[in-house]
Amino acid sequence: MAGAPAGDPETRTALGFLPEESPLYEDMTARSYLRFFADLYEVPRETANRRIETALDDLELEHRDRRLGDVSKGMKRKVAIARSLVNDPDVLIYDEPASGLDPLTTNYVLEYVRALADAGKTVLFSAHNLYHVESVCDRVVIMNEGRIVARGTVEEIRAEHGETSYRVFTTVPVEGSEPDGDRHRTVVDSMAAVEELRAAADAAGGEVVDIRTRESTLEEIFLDVAGQPMPGSRRVDPGADGARASDDDRDRESPPEATTDGGGREP
After folding, report:
1. Domain termination site, one of 215, 243, 258
2. What span, in angstroms and rounded, lies between the C-alpha atoms of 232 and 247?
3. CA dist., res. 131 & res. 222, Å (int)
4. Residue 227 falls inside a structural domain
5. C-beta separation of 254 from 106 below 8 A
6. Which residues lie across from 139 on neighbouring strands?
7. What are the residues facing 164 on neighbouring strands?
8. Where are the beta strands (DSSP E) in 70-207?
9. pLDDT digits over 206-244, tens only?
10. What confidence score (pLDDT) does residue 135 get?
11. Quick one: average pLDDT of 149-172?
């Protein structure tokens, strides 16, 4: 991790971690809570105070001296993010940082994660909302049953696992077209086919008036590559008892699990 053994205690002090569920000490205020964690990391008080106030300013956190038990979920999430920064780590591990937040707070948290990456932090970002992944991550890893099944930039993954189609609208009917209002729509999978439609429309006395490109979303790719059973997976072999397993392919206990992770920048 960041060039050092992952199990090394010093390595752990260089990490910032935000779990999906992050209970806070609700009798503390935001400031006292963050100072407590800064003390655990042995951050000098003056440095800690500066980092804490900077993080709270950046996160636009109000009510810094109010009991954490009396603030909103969004404010608690911001405090948890600030906690991950008190030791000024080079690597941040964020698990579902925007989970369960209102749209405004969600957008703010995602923007802040981007800003951390732009500032030079490496962010390992785990989320099941793939819109969040597409909007934040430079590189993406898709896992199925604990194995990596796709990795790269969103564009690289889309190029390898996705599909591109073209919706071509013409003023006259051509082979394979369907009526669409006062136009005719044909769906093809290559620009060569688009040019063939253009020629066909010209020959019929019409023209192409619109071309719309559609690419697979990351969610569609995820469902495709993570929804496939991995080699050696256990599958149900229905029998008289409803769940007899074969020697080569035993019954599966659950559907494939998958996670999507991305980094603000590579270590």
Report:
1. 215
2. 11
3. 12
4. no
5. no
6. 263
7. 215
8. 91-95, 122-127, 139-144, 147-152, 164-170, 178-180, 183-188
9. 999 999 999 888 888 988 888 766 566 554 444 444 444
10. 85
11. 92
Q: How far is CA 152 from CA 158, 222, 232, 260, in A?
A: 9, 13, 25, 12
127 φ/ψ angles, rounded to the nearest 5 degrees: -160, 150
Q: What is the rounded CA–CA span in Å between residue 60 and residue 65?
A: 14
Q: Which two tokens stand for residue 258?
A: 């998958």
C-alpha–C-alpha distance, residues 81 and 51, integer Å? 12
Buried b / exposed e along 182-210 (16+ C-beta atoms within 10 A): ebbbbebeeeebbebbbebbeeeebebee
Stated length of the chain:
267
Give how far the C-alpha of residue 80 lies from the chain's centroid of Cα atoms, to the nearest Å: 19
> Quick one: how far is CA 131 from the chain centroid?
6
Q: Is the Cβ–Cβ distance between 11 and 93 less than 8 Å?
A: no
Number of compact structural domains in the chain: 2
Q: Which positions ≥6 away from 169 have C-beta within 8 Å? A: 180, 183, 184, 185, 208, 209, 210, 211, 212
- State the CATH number of the domain containing residue 169: 3.30.1490
Structural domain span for residue 91: 9-127
Q: Which amino acid is present at 71?
A: V
Same domain? For 28 and 101 the reply is yes
In DSSP notation, 161-188 reads H--EEEEEEESS--TT-EEETTEEEEEE
Q: What's the whole-model pTM score? A: 0.68
* CA–CA separation, 144 and 149 (whole Å): 6
Secondary structure class of 241 (helix, strand, coil): coil
Cross-strand partners of 211: 168
- Res 179: pLDDT: 94
What was the pLDDT predicted at 255?
35
